[in-house]
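task queued by scheduler; priority normal; single chain, no ligands, no partner chains; default sampling; output format set to structure tokens
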Amino acid sequence: MQQFRVGRLSQEIQREVTDILQKKVRDPRVQGVTVTGVDVTGDLQHATVYYSILDDKASTAAKVQAGLDKATGLVRGELGHRLSIYVTPELKFAQDDSVRYGNRIDQLLTQLHQQDK
């Protein structure tokens, strides 16, 4: 039963954080951020929000992370109003490297394919 609740809450947080980032956060550093997933701890006290960005430069990633860190309080407060749960989890934003990893695999496969010709 608890696992079902955690999964449902993760989906709800992902949907709401995406909406909040698009409509409420005015910081230009967080424009173009895609929320890819949310991990909520079993006690529902902490949530890690995973995001991806199209630009894979380190400087851009640092700016986006700084913008998200600054917006965390606003996002958490807005989540508190939107979700019907007793305690709103503490939020932590973390970059999702799976998209970059997938692109790197595609690059390597393309190189291998080119070498075979």
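post-processing summary
- Residues 58-82 form the longest helix (25 residues).
- The chain has one domain: 2-116.
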